[in-house]
From TrEMBL:
Gene3D superfamilies tied to this protein: HUPs, TPP-binding domain
Chain positions recorded as FAD binding sites: 212, 237-238, 251-255, 269-276, 290, 308-309
Primary role: The electron transfer flavoprotein serves as a specific electron acceptor for several dehydrogenases, including five acyl-CoA dehydrogenases, glutaryl-CoA and sarcosine dehydrogenase. It transfers the electrons to the main mitochondrial respiratory chain via ETF-ubiquinone oxidoreductase (ETF dehydrogenase).
Assembly with partners or alone: Heterodimer of an alpha and a beta subunit.
This protein's name: Electron transfer flavoprotein subunit alpha
Family, as annotated: Belongs to the ETF alpha-subunit/FixB family.
CDD domains the record matches: ETF_alpha (cd01715)
GO molecular function: electron transfer activity; flavin adenine dinucleotide binding
Subcellular localization, as worded in the UniProt entry: Mitochondrion matrix
Species: Geodia barretti
SUPFAM superfamilies on file: Adenine nucleotide alpha hydrolases-like, DHS-like NAD/FAD-binding domain
Length: 321
């Protein structure tokens, strides 16, 4: 058992980004593990999606035709367990998403495997997979090994692993799984689209982010204007979003959005809690402004200033005018 099985996630005829990110994570340890990398695409239109999963490092794409045109966790559980056993997968990777969490733990229970959720790091110790995840509400990071477990199921955090850029030359193989007799988990009624967001933190290249130091919502327009003037997207820490001073789409971090495309991050009055830093791990250059010289944000910042954020905003405004 040395292979890796990545379970493709898709919606509305498109692969979700997390699928390609899982392929990137799997490809980075494939040689050390010693087995092939297989992607399973399950769905009504599985064959049409197979080509999109054909990326560098993938050896085989298995398509499983589903009788249901909508996602059903029971069908995924059956299909993934069947393919994992047929391909003797050592490692099964599933997105840490609403869909992935609906069938991933059930797959792990059925396969009697080791299991970890919300994994943000994947490596090898010898030929043993090691999964990194948070603990105690994200206050610590831990590396997990799975001794004596022949199979390991992991759900991987999105916007965390790098997707391969090059196309692959995997073979595409239809795989029959008897899904008609599997009792579904419910009746699909409708999809409700999320309300449109005014920012896309995941794609923003330059983010000016404000923390609790802004104190109250009437102070936000000053920083929104500064962000606009600098050509930055306005981000925030969780207390700012929780207080309703900015919509949730602006929140950077573990329970917000990961700034996965950001080259410059200006953190104004943000202490640097681990949950916020989880959203900044891809940032190239971090500039932190905080009145507390001991603030943890300075441990990760490339440049820092012990300055009051209101004084800074006013000084910049004067500079512009
Ligand atoms: C499960 C879980 C998930 C979480 N997810 C997230 C998440 O996704 N994103 C997130 O941000 N947090 C998240 N949190 C919350 C996180 O733990 C912190 O509480 C939060 O990040 C703190 O936000 P902050 O830095 O704005 O506030 P604080 O920690 O209160 O820091 C404010 C900082 O501003 C500085 N300051 C104050 N006044 C000024 C001034 N005038 N000028 C300059 N500096 C000043 C202070 O010195 C301080 O360092 C999560 C927590 C949990 C338990």
């Amino acid at each position: 058992m040395t292979g890796i099985l990545v379970v493709a996630e898709h919606f509305d005829g498109l692969l979700r980004d997390v699928t390609l990110e899982m392929i990137g994570a799997a490809a980075s340890i494939k040689d050390g593990l010693g087995g092939p990398l297989t992607v399973v695409v399950i769905g009504h239109d599985a064959e049409a999606l197979a080509n999109a999963a054909n990326r560098e490092g993938v050896d085989e794409i298995v398509t499983v035709a589903s009788p249901d045109s909508h996602f059903d966790p029971a069908l995924y559980e059956e299909a993934v367990c069947t393919v994992a056993e047929a391909r003797q997968a050592r490692l099964v990777l599933i997105g840490h998403t609403a869909a992935g969490m609906a069938f991933g733990p059930a797959v792990a229970a059925r396969l009697g495997s080791g299991f970890a959720s919300d994994v943000f790091g994947l490596s090898l110790e010898g030929a043993e997979p090691i999964a990194s995840r948070g603990g105690y509400g994200g206050k610590v990071a831990m590396d997990l090994a799975f001794p004596d477990k022949p199979v390991i199921v992991l759900t991987l955090r999105g916007a965390t692993f790098k997707a391969p850029e090059e196309a692959g030359n995997a073979s595409i193989v239809p795989f029959a799984v008897e899904l008609d007799a599997v009792p579904g988990t419910g009746r699909h009624i409708d999809y409700l689209p999320a309300p449109p967001a005014d920012v896309d933190i995941g794609k923003a290249e330059f983010i000016l982010s404000v923390g609790r130091a802004v104190q109250e919502d009437k102070n936000l327009p000053q920083f929104a204007a500064l962000a606009e003037r600098l050509g930055a997207t306005l981000g925030c820490s969780r207390p700012v979003a929780d207080s309703g001073w900015l919509p949730k789409a602006h929140q950077v971090g573990q329970s917000g959005t990961i700034a996965s495309n950001c080259s410059l991050y200006l953190a104004l009055g943000i202490s640097g809690a681990v949950q916020h830093l989880a959203g900044m791990k891809h940032v190239d250059t971090i500039i932190a402004v905080n009145t507390d010289p001991e603030a943890p944000i300075f441990n990760v910042a490339d440049h820092g200033a012990c300055v009051d954020i209101f004084e800074l905003a006013e000084a910049l405004e004067r500079e512009f005018n």
